[in-house]
Write a structure and sequence with these properties.
The complex is a heterodimer.
Chain A lengths: L49 E2 L6 E6 L1 H13 L3 E9 L12 E9 L2 E9 L6 E2 L9 H12 L2 E2 L29 H4 L22 E6 L11 E7 L2 E8 L7 H5 L7 H6 L6 H16 L5 H29 L3 H22 L8 E2 L2 E2 L7 H25 L1 H7 L7 H7 L3 H6 L6 H4 L23 H28 L19 E7 L4 E8 L5 E7 L2 H11 L8 H8 L4 H4 L1
Parallel strand pairs in A: 2-5, 6-7
Antiparallel strand pairs in A: 1-2, 3-4, 4-5, 8-9, 9-10, 11-12, 13-14, 14-15
Chain B lengths: L1 H10 L18 H11 L4 E7 L5 H8 L12 E3 L8 E5 L7 H10 L5 E5 H6 L21 E3 L6 H13 L2
Parallel strand pairs in B: 1-2, 1-3, 3-4, 4-5
Chain lengths: ~575, ~170
């Protein structure tokens, strides 16, 4: 049962620098490109893989339980990156026909593209599927969440609830017996069981002098809610266990009550600091299903917005990291630079945080002419100021003393735990969707080809350095995108096209490298422009468990600093 | 060190005497806010913030209040770690069912007389999330709210104006 990837038709990666014979490096942009797919053969099952609509090459296969399990072994062996796991109730809600049972889906990244594997589960009293956590540990919490939402269990030993804190009025909200999310309200009794009355079985550490510190869900700062349970001896952390799910807002259920044309609004609000990444991923999924590609100018503007989002978050984090190490100047300086960027966003995109900028078929507005010189000036200022601040951070002994060797995550551990995004790159794992599977406009010119940034330290210092270096790379991309946008006149074309209603029962994938890591939307269409199921995946799912390891052996007062160096989302994975 | 000092000198004071753009005369300057606080409270205002289930968008704008441009702390408004030190509770998000109990407990821990401001469209009216199996909708559905600041997310200027208004009507 050895191995998978024999590409019948090899997927040809576009070279970032194609021979140009003196012509501009811009490749022709087609208005409606063919879906890019790659055929694959797995040894462990015989069904052919079918192409799946997506903004990157993507394949799909439906598997039996045995094939599902074998495929996981194979995928682990070839070093696939685990992306996400989600379930769906395939019943027909109108006639309560449960014949189609449930589906469990898992998505992976391979050098050739993304792979989505699905396994159908019969509608039984206790629907079960084989766990994938032994091969991909990051899946463990997703399996627990899927059980809470759908009532389908994996065979993993840890069956503690994750999202359900025993206070919901319903047991499995994503089952089809329920109608829309909003109609649920009127049927609710006025008071229900209080979450805090139900103790959660944390894993305890016993020994001389070992005690627990419970933190949260309300933290001592302006920050999202979550609970951290430390087992410590003196100041030293022996174990950290996270308990999240406090901000669960029923996003998946809410998607099912929205029409396809409005889903991007909710996607943007899955995690507010990644609004562009999520709304773009949603639009990419919908546009791939319908075949309506956004105009070239709109994709450039989307990339500009995505890089601005990356810059804003990195600037904010660098300030907060300085502050958490007692260097107030860092916070003051970086927060003013971030404010400058947000104010430029108002001029360029019409809002400070881009919750409403990316729409199906394009973007909300063209770049106004006066914004061009201002953005050029902004990028120049940021380049200069951030370089100066980097020198200050580098030379500050006290700061470096706090940063270095704090919250160490080795490359080996990052790989085994399935780390993604910025945190993985800081531990030497070179994964970035913009480079590995570039989608428009990142694939369209050598100028837009992102240079990968990695560090090998794996400590807070490495994650700080990552942010500095990614800021410079993002600024380079912004300048290239802006130059390209200014070459074509404003009247060069529309920035939004109409997206037709997608046909029912189609699955589409949107994958965007947000500032934290790969953001994914899996969109399943329903009849008459409805959403049947929409799964939004935040990379924090994979990276939260990293923090539990990175903190080991550190002292409790370093936790805020180490936590901030990852800066993971609560709202995103809570859903 | 020289580098750091020269940067401080070069940056200077950025706090804005008036906030731009002014959309209404309700948007206060920092000094107006400070004078109002002094006249009404006679001391600094202490705020405890609770995220009751927001998407994190409103938190980012609350963070911005402390940047040098808005300099909220300069106006005598301070974010405190304990609800027992707070005069005002700032709540964001549609209240998730999982955060309901924590929000109630935080509210109870704040000494009387207390003010509660709901921030953002979600906190004000439930926003895009509304009320569902997982959310209670607006903050007012769970604890008494004295003032609302809508917006998705509201700008720092709008939050400052809202805080001033809440104190003025106390």
């Amino acid at each position: 049962m050895k191995f998978l990837l024999t590409n019948r038709v090899p997927h040809v990666r576009r070279s970032p620098i194609a021979p140009t014979m003196g012509l501009p490096l811009l490749e022709p942009r087609t208005s409606n490109p063919e879906p890019r797919t790659f055929p694959m053969i797995f040894d462990s099952f015989e069904h052919p893989m079918t192409p799946l609509p997506s903004n990157i090459p993507c394949s799909h296969a439906s598997l039996t339980a045995v094939e599902w399990q074998r495929a996981m072994d194979e995928l682990k062996e070839i070093g696939a990156t685990f992306l996400t796991l989600w379930g769906a109730d395939d019943s027909n809600p109108d006639n309560c026909d449960h014949d189609r049972g449930f589906s469990i889906h898992a998505a992976f990244l391979l050098p050739e593209g993304a792979v989505v594997l699905s396994h159908n589960i019969a509608y039984l009293t206790n629907p079960t599927y084989p766990t994938i956590a032994p091969s991909f540990p990051a899946a463990a919490r997703m399996e627990r969440a899927t059980r809470d939402l759908l009532g389908i269990s994996s065979t993993a030993p840890d069956q503690r609830p994750w999202l359900n804190h025993n206070a919901w009025p319903t047991t499995h909200p994503l089952r089809r017996e329920l109608k829309s999310c909003h109609s649920e309200r009127s049927e609710e009794p006025p008071h229900f069981a209080r979450a805090a009355t139900t103790p959660y079985p944390f894993v305890t550490v016993e020994g001389d002098g070992v005690h627990e510190i419970a933190v949260g869900p309300v933290h001592a700062g302006i920050i999202e809610p979550g609970h951290f349970r430390f087992s410590v001896v003196g100041e030293k952390v022996l174990r950290l266990e996270e308990r999240l799910g406090y901000t669960h807002k029923g996003v998946a259920k809410l998607f099912e009550s929205l029409p396809q044309k409005d889903g991007h609004q909710l996607a943007a609000r899955v995690s507010g600091d990644s609004a562009v990444a999520f709304s773009w991923a949603y639009c990419a999924a919908l546009e791939s299903i319908t075949g309506a590609a956004a105009p070239a100018r709109a994709t450039s503007l989307r990339a500009l917005a995505l890089e601005h989002e990356r810059l804003a978050n990195h600037l904010g984090d660098l300030g907060a990291l300085g502050n958490d190490a007692g260097f107030a100047l860092g916070l003051t300086q970086f927060s003013r630079l971030k404010e400058d960027l947000l104010r430029a966003n108002v001029e360029a995109f019409g809002e400070r945080y881009l919750f409403n900028y990316i729409l199906p078929g394009g973007v909300a507005s063209n770049l106004p002419q006066p914004a061009y010189p201002h953005l050029v000036h902004l990028y120049r200022t940021l380049d200069y100021e951030v370089a100066g601040l980097r020198a200050i951070y580098d030379e500050h002994g006290g700061l470096q003393d706090r940063f270095r060797e704090a919250g160490l995550l080795s490359r080996d551990l990052a790989l085994r735990l399935g780390a993604v995004g910025l945190a993985a790159r800081a531990s030497g794992v070179a994964r970035d969707l913009r480079i590995d599977h570039p989608w428009p406009p990142y694939d369209q010119s050598a100028k837009f080809a992102t240079q990968i940034v990695t560090e090998t330290g794996g400590d807070v210092a490495a994650r700080v350095l990552m942010r500095f270096r990614e800021i410079f790379e993002s600024l380079r991309l912004c300048r290239a995108l802006l130059a390209d946008l200014s070459h074509t006149s404003v009247e060069a074309g529309p920035v939004q096209i109409a997206v037709p209603i997608a046909e029912p029962d189609r699955l589409g994938i949107g994958l965007i490298e947000g500032w934290r890591g790969p953001v994914m939307i899996a969109l399943e269409t329903g009849a008459d422009g409805a959403i049947r199921r929409c799964h939004a995946h935040d990379p924090s799912w994979q990276n939260w468990p990293l923090l539990e390891y990175a903190i080991l052996g550190n002292i409790v007062p370093d936790f805020p600093l180490i936590n901030k160096s990852f800066n993971l989302s609560y709202s995103g994975p809570d859903g | 060190m020289l580098n750091t000092l020269s940067r401080i000198l070069r940056t200077g004071i950025l706090t804005e005497p008036t906030l731009e753009p002014r959309t209404s005369n309700l948007e206060p300057a920092v000094d107006t806010l400070q004078q109002a606080l002094w006249a009404i409270l006679g001391r600094a205002l202490c705020i405890r913030h609770v995220d009751a289930g927001s998407c994190n968008g409103c938190e980012l704008e609350i963070h911005a209040l402390n940047n040098p441009y808005y300099n909220l702390e300069g106006a005598g408004i301070k974010f405190v770690a304990s609800p027992r030190h707070a005069d005002l509770l700032l709540v964001t998000g549609p209240v998730s069912v999982n955060m309901e109990e924590a929000l109630r407990r935080t509210y109870d821990a704040i000494p009387d007389p207390k003010m509660v401001i709901a921030i953002g469209d979600c906190g004000t009216c439930g926003g895009i999330f509304g009320a569902s199996y997982a959310t209670r909708g607006p903050v007012a559905a769970v604890i008494p709210v004295t003032h609302n600041i809508p917006g998705c997310p509201p700008t720092p200027a709008a939050i400052m104006a809202g805080i001033l208004q809440a104190i003025s009507t106390r």
